[in-house]
UniProtKB/TrEMBL annotation:
Span of domain PapC N-terminal: 14-158
Family to which the UniProt record says this protein belongs: Belongs to the fimbrial export usher family.
Cross-referenced SUPFAM superfamilies: FimD N-terminal domain-like
Protein name: Outer membrane usher protein
Principal localisation: membrane
Keyword Ribosomal protein in record: no
Gene3D superfamilies: 2.60.40.2070, 2.60.40.3110, 3.10.20.410, Outer membrane usher protein FimD, plug domain
Classification via PANTHER family: OUTER MEMBRANE USHER PROTEIN, OUTER MEMBRANE USHER PROTEIN YFCU-RELATED
Membrane topology, from the record: Multi-pass membrane protein
Length: 832
């Protein structure tokens, strides 16, 4: 079949029906194709795309323009304009028509608007000069989505059973997580942690570590938090308190202006559990395989001293501290960043302690390169004031220097002292090197930080007065040699107790030997020196880890290693492989032990399983599960997660189950109710979710396969992806008078999804066929008849065409908008 068209002034297209290969040329309706870009007046659900960026679906109206009664133009409403992110001076120039409901496009020179019903999309082209600053995958605040109201429960559980020699088995279950609820822009959260140990006597401990609420304040690029919190400061050390905090939120800035998060590196002798905490609150817990580990996914809001605990399966425990510090405090010219907080210090286990305090700090970008910052903290018996300056040295990096003076009264005795800090950061791109952070801090003997003052008030005297702290993190790539080097160093000295020191040096080199490609040689050197304050016992841990790896098969790797710790050598052979995209395993054997480690990335949870056996010593089995559940008024689903209480997206596949959904590096499928949750979505980043069209079930079609949005912190986003589910078959439609619906008529299901277009003699290829369901047939701009699918489908599996009567729903004498195809046929008749 073929036909020709002619275009006339005004955008109309006239069809030459004489060349249509149909028997009845008078029974034709091509009104939706007869005018280029023409959309009948009305209101349509449409996605909005601005300069190739997709906005959420919304209802868009089309009206006849005042100068073209037969035409149709999209109405760009004030609500839609608010999402575009126009500059303020551009908004002042806007003019409107239809009583202020629709934008006059002439008020923004160069702006173009076009609707496309075939893709249900309204395309807007807006010159960049009118728009606020934007970046790749980042939108201005006018496009941020607060999400929908709902509840969540995220968990991280670890269970272990260990049997040592003739001793009774030791069973343990531990975990942590977050319970939360979202109401509008408010995020309500409660963090929990617990541990159950079973030996001869059972020990149970379950506690709520934090109750708090927060919300974003986009107008001032800040976050307000109420409840139990930790002081996150660039000037003062961290401590726990109950109260309120208002902070400039760097995560609301474009990505290139945001800060960084600390990382934790170490070496596990066996399959081990790593617990990272701060002042008793568990921040991170996971099983790791034997060998070096590197944890880089801590929240970027974490600052201060972190406690790291490595629990080996042979019962041994290693602990150390990681000092987390901010990069030099620089602020963009002409802007001010701030943090204020007030409340009462509190202990995780004993509640409130100390007096009500208040604190505030700021950083002011004086010019292009100089920043001035400072702040203070005060309560009835303690006060501290800090001032500093930061300088961008351009090719030489960035540096900052600040001084803090503190006064405290303890047991009628006054303490006064100062502390000085120097920080430096630099990326040497020409040398493939980076000084992530280097800092030095010196404190006078009578200087007490706020946390030291709180400890002294509680225990009755100055405790652990810090003297000096050196920290440095360095990365270097030797690309020609295939070598990378990582160094982390910290040294903490005290006025009233021995020093502590920790450093870790990692080196890795990739090379080839003959036909074997991509071999690697890696070495870790580490030292942890710390003396127990009460017993005075010096704890020194110095070791080396050396390994050689070579690829085997398509994805396997064989690694041989030697681990020397505390004058003991441990030789190990390890084979690891990936079974598929979701499953991997590792088998390890040493001189006297064997172990296995299996990891599964699931749609509803991540699972890690480990088992070990040491000759004449112990056997152990461990399992770890991380996941969560999210429930809203639109439905809910179980899902995997690693960021407790974090941002997530609920995708609705129109109630169709088993639809593959992808987004933010996650692949999952909709559950029985047609819902799927994509977790660990980055806040304030543009996030896309899509249907995996290549893996759709055979009876499912996706009419809308992609959606995008930008969510605020902690939000539960919600989006529909239009999916049609059901059988597909040819059908013949017939009206009650024996005639057929016109050529070009459209068939829609009860969800108003297009399921077919009528061809000659009422034939149509229908999709989404479900027994007993009704569908509507429309032409001339209105719904004309309704068909009902049989309650029992043919036994031949729809191999033959269905004969479906279509009952009229609109009388013939009702005046519907005259189709343009009808106008074309009338013109041809008059011409003949």
């Amino acid at each position: 079949m073929s036909f020709s068209v002619e275009a006339f002034a005004g955008g109309e297209v006239q069809f030459n029906t004489d060349i249509l290969d149909v028997n009845d040329r008078t029974n034709i309706d091509l009104s939706q194709f007869s005018r280029s870009g023409f959309i009948l007046p009305g209101t349509y659900p449409m996605s909005v795309q601005i300069n190739n960026q997709l906005l959420p679906e919304q209802r868009v109206s089309f009206y006849p323009p005042e100068d073209d009664p037969r035409g149709s133009a999209a109405c760009v409403s004030p609500e839609l304009i608010a999402q575009l992110g126009l500059k303020q001076d551009s908004e002042k120039e806007l003019t409107w028509w239809k009583g202020g409901e629709c934008l006059d496009l002439n008020s923004l020179a160069g702006m173009e608007v076009e609707g496309d019903l075939s893709t249900s999309t309204l395309y807007l082209s807006v010159p960049q000069a009118y728009l606020q600053y934007s970046a790749i995958n980042w939108d201005p605040p006018s496009r941020w989505d607060e999400g929908v109201s709902g509840v969540m429960l995220d968990y991280n559980l670890t269970a272990q059973t260990i049997h040592q020699g003739n001793d009774a088995s030791r069973n343990e279950v531990s975990g942590n997580g977050t319970v939360g609820a979202n109401v509008g822009p408010w995020r309500l959260r409660a963090d929990w942690q617990g541990r159950v140990e079973g030996r001869e006597q059972s020990h149970q401990k379950m506690e709520w570590s934090r109750f708090y609420a927060y919300r974003a304040l986009p107008a001032i690029q800040s976050r307000l938090m109420l409840g139990e919190n930790y002081l996150y400061s660039d000037l003062f050390d961290s401590f726990r308190f109950t109260g309120a905090a208002l902070n400039s939120d760097d995560s609301q800035l474009p990505p290139n202006l945001r800060g960084y998060a600390p990382e934790v590196v170490g070496v596990a002798k066996t399959n081990a559990k790593v617990i990272i905490s701060q002042q008793g609150r568990v921040l991170y817990e996971a099983l790791v395989a034997a060998g070096p580990f590197r944890i880089q996914d801590l929240n970027d809001a974490v600052t201060g001293s972190l406690d790291v605990r490595i629990e080996e399966q042979d019962g041994s425990v290693t602990t150390f501290k990681v000092e987390s510090a901010s990069i030099p405090y620089l602020t963009r010219p002409g802007t001010v960043r701030y943090k204020v907080a007030a409340g009462r210090p509190s202990d995780l286990h004993e509640g409130g302690q100390g007096n009500t305090f208040g604190t505030g700090e700021f950083s002011w970008g004086i010019s292009n390169g100089w920043s001035l910052y400072g702040g203070g903290i005060i309560d009835n018996h303690y006060n501290a004031l800090s001032m500093g300056v930061g300088r961008d040295l351009l090719a030489f990096g960035a540096v900052s220097f600040d001084a803090t003076r503190a006064r405290a009264t303890l047991q009628d005795k006054n303490y006064s002292g100062a502390s000085y800090r120097l920080s430096y950061s630099k990326t040497f791109e020409e040398y493939d090197s980076q000084v992530t952070f280097a800092g030095y801090r010196f404190s006078e003997k009578n200087f007490l930080s706020m946390s030291e003052y709180l400890d002294a008030s509680r225990f009755g005297g100055p405790i652990g007065g810090s003297k000096s702290l050196y920290t440095a993190t360095f990365n270097k790539q030797f690309r020609d040699a295939g070598l990378s080097v990582y160094l982390n160093y910290s040294n903490q000295s005290y006025w009233d107790r021995p020093d502590s020191e920790r450093w870790n040096l990692s080196m890795a080199r990739y090379f080839s030997a003959g036909n074997i490609k991509n071999m690697s040689l890696s070495m870790n050197l580490f030292r942890n020196q710390e003396r127990d304050q009460r017993s005075g016992v010096q704890n020194n841990t110095t070791g080396m880890y050396l390994s050689v790896s070579l690829p085997l098969g398509r994805s396997g790797t064989l690694t041989t290693s030697v681990n020397r710790t505390q004058n003991q050598n441990r030789y190990t052979g390890r084979f690891s492989d990936r079974l598929d995209a979701r499953n991997s395993y590792q088998l390890t054997a040493s001189d006297s032990s064997v172990s296995g480690y299996f990891s599964h990335t699931g749609a509803q949870a991540d699972l890690d399983i480990s088992a070990s056996m040491q000759e004449d010593d112990y056997t152990s089995l461990g399992i770890s599960a991380r996941g969560g559940g999210t429930l809203t008024a639109h439905g809910g689903a179980l899902h995997r997660t690693s960021s407790m209480g974090g941002t997530r997206l609920l995708v609705d596949t129109a109630g169709v189950p088993d639809v593959p959904v992808r987004g933010y590096g996650v692949s999952t499928r909709s559950n029985t109710f047609g819902k799927a949750v994509i977790s660990d979505v980055s806040s304030y980043y543009r996030t896309a979710a899509s249907i995996d069209l290549e893996n759709l079930p055979s009876n499912v079609e996706a009419t809308q396969s992609v959606t995008q949005l930008t969510l605020t912190e902690g939000a539960i986003g919600y989006r529909n992806l239009d999916v049609i589910s059901g059988h597909k078959a040819m059908a013949v439609l017939r009206l009650p008078d024996g005639e057929y619906p016109p050529f070009g008529a459209t068939v829609k299901n009860q969800k108003l999804q297009d399921t077919g277009i009528v061809n000659e003699d009422g034939s149509v290829y229908l999709s989404g066929i479900k027994p007993g369901e009704t569908m509507n047939v429309s032409w001339g701009g209105q719904q004309r008849c309704t068909l009902t699918l049989p309650t029992q489908l043919p036994a031949d599996g729809l191999a033959t065409a269905l004969n479906l009567p279509c009952h009229k729903t609109v009388p013939d004498d009702l005046s519907a908008p005259e189709s343009l195809m009808g106008q074309g046929a009338k013109m041809e008749k008059q011409a003949s």
